[in-house]
Each structure stands twice: as structure tokens, then as C-alpha cells.
Design brief:
Number of strands: 19
Radius of gyration: 21 Å
Number of helices: 8
Helix content: 10-25%
Structural class: alpha+beta
Order of helices and strands: EEEEHEEEHHEEEHHEEEEHEHEEEHE
Strand content: 25-35%
Distance between the termini: 12 Å
Shape: globular
Length: 353
């Protein structure tokens, strides 16, 4: 691994009390290039712009995928990653689906450990604070023929982050647009999945909602995801969440919530989640809460669900009664080293650089 440290750290520009998600980046980035059938040297260098041609193939044919993960700091200034091998596995799953070369453990896990160690001062400490990490892989060849690229770039960058949503959100059930289809790339973190979601989301926002509940492409009768989050609903004292499929991302936070809920003795049912069943549960009063989960948001409660012309207001439970908030606290306490980690999820970033 080749390491070039910055001569001028920008850490002094960071104001932990005034963080805007994704607008300020830590001092270093990781770059590794693929050419002639193999990956080259892993390089860590000062963060900055790179030079690309407008013919770069990712811009034309969409061979690009990314991951989202976080580093956390505890009161003793220790820094931790959370379940990084899950992200490593999923990045390669995405790469295979998009006909891109898989990344190595040295590039991904070793690269994460090194760059976060070097930039550990950028990991903010405090409630809701973290360093959001973005590994990304994309076709970097300069060519306009529609084919699999011969050159790729893998990179890791990081940005300080605070709580993504500070208040519960209103969501609209989609009865026309879909996030993904069977046989497609819904289970991959393909860049195009997100580009295709912006227009329907803008339409929902014009109706007074924050995000969309994506439904299945064939019938629009099943809950799938919400914006960029996996979905959970609680009917009486049972938690329901859609099963993963070719259309639904296997979220790391989703899996963590499921395991935490079972650990706490909460019944979790994973399967088809019908829009009609959620609607009926709201009408008969058994729908206690609904929420989305993801790396950036951790947990976001829903305050209302738009269904057709109706806006279904949801109860806003406090921390004592809400499963969503209880599970969020349990997860964050593990991530930030405030609780025991019975699952082995927390990974210490050792001081080496």
C-alpha cells in the first residue's frame, strides 16, 4: 500500500456543530485502478479532484456501484467500524451483477482500516455523529462503445456526518413508479438505482411527502423499500419487514435490526408485506408504528403514510414504547462502544499510522 500524506490538513475547517451531510471530505482518499485484467497498487493520497474524459464509460453505460458505512468514536477516542465485511461482500455482489471486477480484501478492509486510522481526527464524537464512508467502483475507461469496460477505479472517501433526519417523515405509497424489477439490479447498490428514483421522489415531495414507499413493479401491492431505506412496520407487538429479493437491497442496518429485535424477544416476520394489510391495520388501530432503516439515517420514524388520496397519520410513540427507538438505541450503543457487542459487529480501527 502506497501512502502519501497531505501536507495541509483541513481538519481546522471542520465545525462539528455545523455539519452538512456529504459536503466536506476528510483529508485523504483511497484510489486503486484496474487495467489489463488486474488491480494495481492501493494508494492513499490527499483528497482532491481527479481528471477524467467526458467519454468515461460509467457516465454512458452506468457501470458503477457503491457502499455506505460509518466509523464511530467513543469517549476514550477509540474509533470503530461497523460490520465492514458485510459491506465488502455486498460490494462484490454488486460488482459481479454489473460485470465489474471484484475488489480484494486488502483493497476494501485493509484500505478502510488504513484510511480511517490516518483520518481518525475526522471522526466526530457525540450523539448522532459519525464519519460516513463511501467506497465506490466505476468504469473509468475512455470509450463510447456499449460493452463491458476494460478499466475501472475503486475509491474510498469519507465525510463527517450527523443525524440525517431530525424529525419523523411522511411517506407516499407509489402506485405507479417502481424502484426495481425481477431480473434487474435492485439487490445491488448500483448508481442507476438512485438516479432513477429522484423524479418520483420529487413528485411525492410536491404532494407534501418526504419520501416514497416503493412497491413491487408487477402489482404495486407489496411494500418494498422507502426511498433509500429498508422498511419495518409494527402491527400490535409483531414487527414485519419485506423479504429480500432481486428487487430489494439486503441492508446491513436491516439485518442488524432483525437480529437485535430477535435478541430482545420481539417477534419478527420476514415475508411479503401487503399494502392492503398495512392500510387495514391502520384503520383498525393495530398499526402501532412504521419506520425506515439505513446506514445514513440509522432509523427514521414515519409520521404519515400517503395511500391514494388518504394521508394516514401514525402514532408517535416515545422511546419507552417505540420498538423503532429501542432498537435504534441498542444499535447505536453497540456502534459507539456504549454497550456490549454480543454479535461481534464492532471492529476496532487500530492505531498504526
Amino acid at each position: 500500500m502506497i501512502i502519501e500524506r497531505t501536507a495541509n490538513s483541513r481538519i481546522g475547517e471542520l465545525d462539528p456543530k455545523n455539519i452538512t451531510f456529504g459536503n466536506m471530505f476528510s483529508d485523504h482518499m483511497l484510489i486503486c485502478e484496474y487495467e489489463n485484467g488486474s488491480w494495481g497498487d492501493v494508494k492513499i493520497m490527499p483528497y482532491g479532484p481527479l481528471s477524467f474524459s467526458p467519454a468515461i464509460m460509467v457516465a454512458h453505460y452506468g457501470q458503477g456501484a457503491f457502499e455506505g458505512m460509518k466509523a464511530y468514536k467513543d469517549k476514550d477516542d477509540n474509533v470503530f467500524l461497523f460490520r465492514p465485511y458485510k459491506n465488502f461482500e455486498r460490494m462484490n455482489k454488486s460488482a459481479v451483477r454489473l460485470a465489474m471486477p471484484e475488489v480484494t480484501e486488502e483493497m476494501f478492509i485493509g484500505g478502510l482500516q488504513t484510511i480511517i486510522d490516518i483520518d481518525r481526527d475526522w471522526v466526530p464524537f457525540g450523539d448522532g455523529m459519525s464519519l460516513y464512508i463511501r467506497p465506490v467502483i466505476f468504469a473509468s475507461e475512455e470509450a463510447l462503445k456499449a460493452r463491458v469496460a476494460n478499466k475501472y477505479m475503486f475509491s474510498i472517501m469519507a465525510t463527517p456526518a450527523k443525524a440525517y433526519y431530525s424529525e419523523p417523515v411522511a411517506v407516499k405509497v407509489s402506485d405507479h413508479f417502481s424502484r426495481a424489477a425481477n431480473g434487474g439490479v435492485g439487490y445491488a447498490k448500483a448508481a442507476g438505482n438512485y438516479g432513477g428514483s429522484f423524479y418520483p421522489t420529487m413528485m411525492a415531495q410536491e404532494e407534501g411527502y418526504d419520501q416514497i414507499i416503493w412497491t413491487d413493479d408487477a402489482t404495486h401491492t407489496l411494500f418494498e423499500e422507502c426511498g433509500t431505506m429498508n422498511v419495518f412496520v409494527r402491527i400490535n407487538d409483531t414487527v414485519y419487514t419485506p423479504k429480500t429479493s432481486e428487487r430489494i437491497l439486503d441492508g446491513v442496518t436491516r439485518d442488524s435490526f432483525i437480529q437485535l429485535a430477535k435478541h430482545k424477544g420481539i417477534e419478527v416476520i420476514i415475508g411479503d408485506l401487503k399494502v392492503e394489510d398495512v392500510y387495514k391495520a391502520h384503520k383498525d388501530g393495530s398499526l402501532k408504528e412504521a419506520w425506515g432503516v439505513g446506514t445514513a439515517v440509522v432509523t427514521t420514524q414515519f409520521k404519515a403514510i400517503g395511500y391514494g388520496d388518504e394521508r394516514l397519520a401514525l402514532p408517535q410513540l416515545d422511546a419507552e414504547d417505540s420498538y423503532a427507538l429501542q432498537l435504534k438505541k441498542a444499535l447505536v450503543d453497540i456502534q459507539t462502544n456504549q454497550a456490549e457487542d454480543p454479535f461481534g459487529w464492532r471492529v476496532l480501527v487500530e492505531r498504526k499510522n
